[in-house]
Amino acid sequence: MSKAPLPIKIDPRRSADQGLSYEGSLPLKRLDRLVSYLVDAEGDIDVSLTFGIDEEKIRYLSGIAEVSVRMLCQRCLEPVAMTLRAELNLGIVKNDEAAEILPKRYDPLIVVDNALDVNQAIEDELILTLPLIPTHEDCEVKTEFMDPNAKPEDDSKENPFGILAQLKGYKH
Ligand SMILES: [Zn+2]
To answer: Ligand 1: distance of its center to the CA of 131 in Å?
Structure first.
C-alpha cells in the first residue's frame, strides 16, 4: 500500500472510500494546546493514518501518533522525558446522534463538512494520553544534583501566608 505524506486537511469520507493511508511527521510547535502542557516545543510527531470502511459499512480512521516530549515532574520540578503514543480508533460520523449509535470499539470523530483538520484531531488524541501528574520514575537520580537549599515547593506554600501576614500588619 502506497502512503501519501501528511496533509493539513483530509476529506475523511473520500479517504475512507478509497482506503487511503497517510504517513508523515508533524512539528510539535504547531500544536499550541498540546505544547502548553510541555516544557518545550522541540520535536516532531510521527503520524501514521489509515482510512477505510469496516464490514459494518462504518467509515473509520485508525492510526498512531507518537512523539517524545518533556513535561515538568510534579515531585522535583525538573523536566521529565516521556513518549506520548496515541492509538487512534475513530468512527467517522456526521453528528452527535450518529456518534451515540457508533459501536463501542470506536471513539467518535465528528466531521461536519468534508474537511478533517488533521492537526487538531491528532492534538486531541495526544492530549488524552497526557499523564495527570507527570513524575520521574525515580526523582532521586535527578534531585541529588540539585541545590539542597532550593525548595521551590516549600517557598510557594509559605508565600500566601507571608502575604497574608503583611496585609494584616498593613491594616493596623
Ligand atoms: Zn522528578
So the answer is: 14
Cell 539542597 locates to: 148
Q: Return the closest-CA partner of residue 57 out of 115, 13, 9, 116.
A: 13
* Ligand 1 center–CA 80 separation, angstroms: 7
CA of 69 to the centre of ligand 1 (A): 15
| C-alpha to C-alpha distances, 31 to 53, 96, 103, nearest whole angstrom | 29, 25, 30
Ligand 1 centroid to residue 71 C-alpha, Å: 10
Which grid cell is 77?
A: 520540578
Q: Which residues of the chain have pLDDT under 50?
A: 143, 154-165, 169-172
80 phi/psi in degrees, rounded to 5: -125, 125
Distance from the alpha carbon of residue 158 to the mean position of ligand 1, in angstroms: 21
Distances (CA, A) of 115 to 12, 15, 93, 124, 166: 7, 11, 13, 16, 57
Write down the residue that cell numbers 497517510 correspond to: 22
Global pTM value = 0.76
Domain map of the chain by residue range? 9-144
DSSP, res 30: G
